[in-house]
Hints:
- This protein is of the alpha+beta class.
- It has helices spanning 18-21, 62-67, 77-92, 94-127, and strands at residues 3-6, 25-28, 31-36, 39-42, 48-51.
- It has a 3-stranded antiparallel beta sheet, with no helix packed on it.
Amino acid sequence: GKSVLIENMAETIEAVLQPVVSRNTIKRGNKRVVKLGDKEIILKDAFKLFMQTKLSNPHYPPEIQAETTIINFTVTEDGLEDQLLFLVVKLERPDLAKKKTELIQQQNEFKVTLAQLEALLLEKLANSEGDIL
């Protein structure tokens, strides 16, 4: 139920952490467990995983972007303006703030779907026989 901070992450996530990041849990009785390697560890609701990078402009794959919340702590005038505007909209028009959040989430899901479809298309092209034109 405690928080874990992993520092100095690269642009990839270790395979052993993937079940935690993607929240692949298994229900065992009234508990949720996550499989790390060959062990099953109880996952409490209060558990939080924080990953920090020193990269100034990291480019994570769409799958990671869809499964995580990425916060850029680099403050620019435009970025600060966007954040403050979002807070004002959230206070004045919570319906618009909710819609924006839903649209961002939908956009991330579309990016993941696009990457999967591109991989599928490339696989089908690679496995095709004969003249495809």
